[in-house]
Specification:
4 domains; two-stranded antiparallel sheet; Myb/SANT-like_dom
Length: 345
């Protein structure tokens, strides 16, 4: 809807321009439309939020946003893996962060204070078309979002877990986009994070301040303590989010290890199967008879040959012992011993 209004404004403004300017304006709008379309795959989205959580743990994410070092690390790692050509943090990554946050809130609102919901084997909400039609009236596009984003809801929960849905049925379209932004801690201060230096320790500031200023600070200290309570709560929330992210990472690592062990077990079973087949082939009747026919000094259909055939066909143990002999002479001696026949009889 917003893009449609922008297109109308583009057309109205372009009606007073030359043909060349109109074409340029249309190309500009189409480029904006392309950028606005969310073409991220679930795998790309998950990797982005994994990188984001990692940079937070490194200390590159503050209350005001991601700093330049964190942004560069995320953009470099993402480009190395997916080769998407994303070069603008605000357009490519910040926009994805914000849209994911809004989708998360909308999806959470679906289940807020609702009973009797059904789910399929992938964890997606499984309800009737009439139910979805009612939800679409409240929030257009929510059915598609709920199905597409289900794979990454654990990452959204870790990042946006402080969301608060209010009201009997949670958020609806009538509350507006501003309501979405106000209900969850986000990353709105990215641009300020680049330019604001870290605060100096309070002890150093006290040493360089004149006595009159120190007295003034002591008088206003109770008011500052009021704000410190909110800061402590924010730190606790961030700590809880980090714990959830860490748990998700551990679960992902455990799944990777489990898959690696499963692959190794499959490879070992395959090797064992091939070895069993090879052993069976070696002691097969066809193979031992071929070896018997190739033995020097054992004429075909001679008494030793006939007795050896009967011996090897009747017993797998004899076939195993026969093929175990290292040399042709040893094989002939074995046959003579077991059949009581000599090669020159």
């Amino acid at each position: 809807m917003i893009l449609a209004h922008k297109l109308v404004r583009f057309i109205d403004a372009g009606s007073h321009l030359s043909s060349h300017s109109q074409a340029h304006s249309l190309m500009l709008f189409l480029s904006l439309l392309k950028m606005a379309k969310d073409t991220w795959t679930p795998e790309e989205t998950r990797y982005f939020f994994q990188l984001y959580a990692e940079e937070r743990r490194k200390g590159n994410k503050s209350a005001t946003g991601m700093n330049k070092v964190g942004k560069k690390n995320i953009m470099d790692a993402f480009e190395l893996r997916f080769k998407k050509g994303f070069s603008d943090w605000k357009r490519d990554f910040k926009n994805k962060y914000d849209t994911s946050r809004k989708k998360y809130i909308k999806i959470k609102a679906l289940t807020q204070n609702r009973t009797g919901l059904g789910y399929d084997h992938k964890g997606r909400i499984l309800m009737s078309d009439d139910w979805w039609n009612e939800r679409e009236k409240e929030c257009p596009g929510i059915r598609k979002s709920a199905c597409k984003e289900i794979d990454n809801m654990d990452m959204y929960e870790a990042e946006f877990g402080g969301v608060v849905i209010t009201g009997a049925e949670g958020w609806s379209a009538q509350h507006g986009e501003a309501s979405l932004n106000s209900r969850v801690g986000g990353d709105d201060g990215d641009e300020e994070a680049d330019s604001q230096p870290a605060a100096e320790p309070q002890a150093l500031e006290t040493e360089t301040q004149p006595p009159a200023q120190i007295q003034t600070q002591r008088q206003t200290q109770p008011a500052a303590q009021t704000h410190s309570g909110g800061s402590s709560r924010a730190k606790r929330r961030r700590k809880e989010k980090d714990m959830v992210v860490e748990a998700c990472d551990k679960r992902t690592d455990a799944i990777v290890v489990k898959n690696r062990i499963a692959e190794q077990m499959l490879e070992r079973e395959e090797r064992q199967r091939v070895e069993r087949e090879e052993r069976q082939r070696v002691i097969s009747i066809e193979n031992v008879l071929e070896i018997l026919s190739a033995l020097p000094g054992v004429e075909e259909w001679s008494p030793l040959y006939e007795a050896a055939m009967e011996l090897l066909i009747d017993s797998e143990e004899n076939r195993r012992a026969f093929v175990t002999m290292k040399t042709d002479e040893a094989k002939i001696k074995f046959l003579e011993l077991r059949t009581k026949k000599k090669r020159f009889d």
